[in-house]
Amino acid sequence: MTTEAPPKKEEPKKEEESFLSLFVHNLWSANTVTVTFLSILLALVIGAVLIVVSDSEVLATFSYFTARPSDALTASWDLISRAYADLFKGAIFDPAAVSAWFNGTGDWQTALNPLSETLTYAAPLVFTGLSVALAFRGGLFNIGGQGQAVIGCVTAGVAGFAIGLPAGLHLVVALAAGLIGGALWGFVPGLLKARTGAHEVITTIMLNYTATLFLGWLILQNGVQDPDRTDAISKTIDSTAGLPALPAPLRVHFGIVLAVLVTAGVAWLVNRSSFGFELRAVGVNPPAAKTAGMSVGRTYIMLMVVAGGLAGLGGATQVLGTADRLTDQVAGNIGFDGLLVALLGRNKPWGTLFAAILYGGLRAGGNLMQVDVGISLELVTVLQALIVIFIAAPALVKAIFQLRDARTARLGASMAKGW
After folding, report:
1. DSSP labels for 129-180?
2. Where does the chain cross the membrane (predicted)?
């Protein structure tokens, strides 16, 4: 007697994931874009708490929170929404000003002024950020962007008022002077690193102080100091050496265009040139690069020269575009801010460009927040620091939002099959 085998149960076919589900899955994964966006979101949330805590009137409504919670919540929301609305209006555009421009009751200068301020603040930061990012890719920590930018300001500024040349040529000479000044200031720590092994962090920090003190001494000397002034300020830079700019009151100038062009050049240098291959190899493993026949010392020197030249060009952009003369604070903190911009941009050229624009937007919007809402500019600095902290600690962001590891191979395979 034969018994029939029980029929096999057909296993349900596993449905292939659609392209949309794969896209959403990969979007909510621990990739660079997602972590950066969530870092900014976390910084804004913590910033909102600090905004409420810093306002005594709003904070007073929490004393009777259990009796009337709506008062505290409404007051907090009004303050936060006004503050962040001003941040947007001061950094990108004011909808009311744009509407007035289109209606004929306003002008285009007022409508574009916020974006102009953002790009004005961002232009020099692109150069100093690229300087730091490029050094990072080669395994060096260039803390000397501030000193290199100061020397760039000095050489470009002196060339701007001490040399009489026709328009156009004068600007090129002044920009070249800033680039060369910064490159020479970067050459010193690069040479010391290559020849003696001196750590670039120590040497560049010391050179920062040297550059700042040299600037303070120079602007008080005869031939440099404005003869009509008694304070520490130089002569006015000739108009022939100034960067072309939009009509007043807009301050944005050709420096932002130059920054985009230099970013494209640095991206090519890092990713396409033989020098870029060498610096990346040295940055990853100097002994292996030396074994492969690369000169590690020569690469360090060239890397610091290029990084210093970029920072010097940032200083030249600052003095020839935003300022029109040398002062002891002409460079501001563009070198130190470049460190944060490079971190925010993940040490990549195009990422650095967008990070500088974001940083400039926070600065421009923070000015309006300070005037309109009464929030201190230091709080905007805290926002910038929080963004950098979260981006510098991606593991923390992944843990907070429980992000999965990126699985781009699945998405790529689905796209290759035509999904």
Report:
1. HHHHHHHHHTT---TTHHHHHHHHHHHHHHHHHHS---TTHHHHHHHHHHHH
2. 28-53, 118-136, 148-165, 171-192, 201-220, 252-270, 300-320, 379-401
Q: Whose CA is closest to 238, among 309, 174, 327, 333?
A: 174
Neighbours of 18 (CB within 10 A): 11
Of 332, 331, 360, 357, nearest in space to 156 by CA:
331
Determine phi and psi for 356, rounding to 5 degrees: -65, -40
| 233 φ, ψ (degrees, to nearest 5) | -155, 145
**pLDDT of the chain along its 419 residues, tens only?**
455 555 555 555 444 556 556 555 555 555 677 787 888 888 889 989 988 988 888 989 998 888 889 999 999 999 999 989 988 998 998 999 999 999 988 889 989 999 999 999 999 999 999 999 999 999 999 999 999 999 999 999 999 999 989 989 999 999 999 999 999 999 999 999 999 999 999 999 999 999 999 999 999 999 999 998 888 999 999 999 999 998 888 999 999 999 999 999 999 999 999 999 999 999 989 999 999 889 999 999 999 999 999 999 999 999 999 988 999 999 989 999 999 899 888 899 999 999 999 989 988 988 888 877 777 777 878 877 887 788 777 778 888 887 776 554 344 333 333 33
Cα separation, 338 vs 344, whole angstroms = 10
CATH topology of domain 119-361: ABC transporter involved in vitamin B12 uptake, BtuC (1.10.3470)
At residue 333, φ and ψ (nearest 5 deg) are: -120, 30
- Domain parsing of the chain, residue ranges: 119-361
**Whether 32 contacts 38, CB under 8 Å:** no
Dihedrals phi, psi of 245, to nearest 5 degrees: -140, 165
Token pair, residue 330, equals: 């002409």
User: Measured between alpha carbons, how far is residue 161 from residues 158, 165, 223, 258 in Å?
Assistant: 6, 10, 10, 22
Query: Which residues, at least 6 apart from 221, have a Cβ–Cβ distance to it below 8 Å?
Result: none
